[in-house]
């Protein structure tokens, strides 16, 4: 968390939280949701300002109930999640070495791989509790190049570089939040 945010929290500790105004979409884009977007169920407008995106990413965290938020100075802004709290991009370098990075640019080391009923690929890392991230759909080809899938495409294995083979486990999309302990829409809990 940024020092300026810590200072604002100390100076104004009782600023009410807000919900519905910020969304992390299925592709890892931060979106601002005004009242019209919230009323219509729209994902809102993508945030493109690099400094603001960096500020959001540095001050993004979860509370003890699994509700993800952006600490905007003294105000906690709870985040609507398009799927998971993390979205990862998969890349491969010229030497064939795979890398995963989350929407904030951090390294994501996979410990488990999942596929949902829609063909979405998810990874869990080895942190406690495990972070769960959905793979950006633009990277499905890279994933397929390093996976062996069964005929039903719901099982198989993913080869993570030369050090690890991850069995592909099935998970139902509606079970992901409960299984990995996060709240996709914190508005009802705040």
What does this structure look like?
This is DUF2946 family protein. InterPro entries: DUF2944 (IPR021332). The protein is α+β, with helices and mostly antiparallel strands and 190 residues long. It has 2 domains: 3-83 and 182-188, duf1285 like fold, CATH 3.10.540; 86-180, no CATH class. The chain is 18% helix and 36% strand. The chain contains 5 helices and 14 strands. It has helices spanning 3-11, 35-40, 50-58, 140-145, 176-180; strands at 18-24, 30-32, 45-46, 60-62, 68-72, 75-81, 86-92, 98-102, 110-115, 121-125, 132-135, 147-149, 156-160, 164-170. The strands form 2 sheets. The protein has an 8-stranded mixed beta sheet. Strands 3-2-1-6-5-4 form a 6-stranded mixed beta sheet. A hairpin with a 5-residue loop joins strand 1 and strand 2. The longest helix is centred in the N-terminal third of the chain and has 9 residues, at 3-11. The chain is globular. The two termini are 21 Å apart. The model has no long low-confidence stretch (mean pLDDT 91).
């Amino acid at each position: 968390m940024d020092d300026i945010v810590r200072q604002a929290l100390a100076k104004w500790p009782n600023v009410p939280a807000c919900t519905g105004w910020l969304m992390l979409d299925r592709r890892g884009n931060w979106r601002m949701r005004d009242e019209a977007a919230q009323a219509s169920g729209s994902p809102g407008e993508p945030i493109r300002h690099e400094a603001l995106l960096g500020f959001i990413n540095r001050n993004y965290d979860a509370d003890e109930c699994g509700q993800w938020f952006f600490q905007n100075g003294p105000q906690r802004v709870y985040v609507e999640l398009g799927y998971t709290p993390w979205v990862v991009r998969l890349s491969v370098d010229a030497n064939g070495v795979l890398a995963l990075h989350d929407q904030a640019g951090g390294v994501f080391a996979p410990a488990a791989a999942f596929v949902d009923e829609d063909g979405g690929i998810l990874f869990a890392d080895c942190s406690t509790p495990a972070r769960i991230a959905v793979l950006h759909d633009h990277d499905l080809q890279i994933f397929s190049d390093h996976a062996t899938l069964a005929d039903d495409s719901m099982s198989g294995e993913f080869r993570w570089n030369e050090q690890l083979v991850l069995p592909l486990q099935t998970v139902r999309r509606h079970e992901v939040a409960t299984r990995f302990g996060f709240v996709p829409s914190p508005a009802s809990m705040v």
